[in-house]
Write a structure and sequence with these properties.
Helix content of chain A: 10-25%
Strand order of the largest sheet of chain B: 1-4
CATH topology of the largest domain in chain B: Nitrile Hydratase, Chain A
CATH architecture of chain A: Roll
CATH topology of chain A: SH3 type barrels
Order of helices and strands of chain A: EEHEHEE
Number of helices of chain A: 2
Number of helices of chain B: 11
CATH class of chain A: Mainly Beta
Shape of chain A: globular
Strand order of the largest sheet of chain A: 4-3-2-1-5
Strand content of chain A: 35-45%
Distance between the termini of chain A: 13 Å
Order of helices and strands of chain B: HHHHHEEHHHHEEHH
Oligomer: heterodimer
CATH superfamily of the largest domain in chain B: Nitrile hydratase alpha /Thiocyanate hydrolase gamma
Number of strands of chain A: 5
Strand content of chain B: 5-15%
Largest interface: A-B, 27 and 24 residues
């Protein structure tokens, strides 16, 4: 699964029992892919010493502040590895 | 950030270094060599030169926004290659209607080679937690009061992408040369906590 710019994706809501780069404040929220950044090793695998780590595409995903915080007129864009999200 | 918090962070950092050394993962010499390499030639003057060039050269501006790494190389700055182990420079442009600001809520990532060592406030819990939630208020505390009509985009740097803001060229600078234009650009402007 890969997501083009414009795709709507939902951040996985779970709280893993290991290191991850998913900030808590976006978990379970839906955003829009605004850029495909590149491919990098998954930090969750690297932190656990999994060799080789999965290498995944990373996306810049934009969220609206109103959705995240129920206030604010700004947007927040967060970089997310592919396995952090599902198609919304 | 207060001196007390700085001291606390230094103590925590040293404790982490000692754990790495005790685990045989790194030596003091390796950590020192890494930091020396990280900060060698790292300066906001580098990012400022790229901004000044983008203000005067439309083709360079296009390259800067499309492929930051290539634009850095074209300006004579060696970034780590993209792909595994490397960074991808993402440059986001301010306009009359849009203002960008960079934060790293997980730690304090930003393009060190182009912005120099990050300021203490960039690493503070207050900046990291408040910028994603109330950027307009945070920017006002930096002296940047934006009209309500200007949309704010916050970029939370959670991956190996490294973000830099391309500020808008100030009015009345048409007569300035590249070096004078670069002198106008501040580190805070490259983060988005200043207009330029």
């Amino acid at each position: 699964m890969s997501y083009p710019a414009g795709a709507r994706v939902r951040v996985r809501a779970g709280d893993p029992d290991h290191h991850t780069r998913v900030p808590r404040y976006i978990r379970g929220h839906t955003g829009e892919v605004v850029a495909v950044l590149g491919q990098w090793p998954l930090p969750d695998d690297r932190a656990r010493g999994i060799v080789p780590p999965r290498v995944e595409t990373c996306y810049a995903v934009r969220f609206s502040a109103a959705d995240l915080w129920e206030s604010g007129d700004h947007t927040v864009t967060v970089d997310l590895w592919e396995s952090y999200v599902d198609r919304a | 950030m207060t001196g007390h918090e700085d001291e606390h962070a230094a103590v925590r950092t040293r404790r982490l270094e000692e754990r790495l050394i005790a685990a045989g993962l790194a030596s003091d010499e390796e950590i020192d060599a890494f930091l020396t390499q990280l900060y060698a030639n790292a300066s906001p003057v580098n990012g400022a030169r790229m901004v000044a060039r983008a203000w005067t050269d439309p083709d360079y501006r296009e390259l800067l926004l499309a492929d930051g790494n290539a634009a850095a190389v074209a300006a004579g700055f060696a970034l780590a290659p993209s792909g595994p182990g490397g960074f991808q420079l993402q440059v986001v442009a301010n306009t009359d209607q849009a203002h960008n600001v960079i934060v790293c809520t997980l730690c304090s990532c930003y393009p060190v080679a182009l912005l120099g060592p990050s300021p203490g406030w960039y690493k503070s819990f207050a900046y990291r937690s408040r910028t994603v939630r109330e950027p307009r208020a945070v920017l006002a505390e930096f002296g940047v009061t934006l009209p309500d009509s200007v949309r704010i985009s916050v970029w939370d740097s959670t991956s190996e992408a490294r973000y830099m803001v391309l500020p808008s060229r100030p009015a009345g600078t048409e007569a300035l040369g590249a070096a004078e234009l670069a002198d106008l650009v501040t580190r805070n402007g490259l983060i988005g906590t200043a207009l330029v």
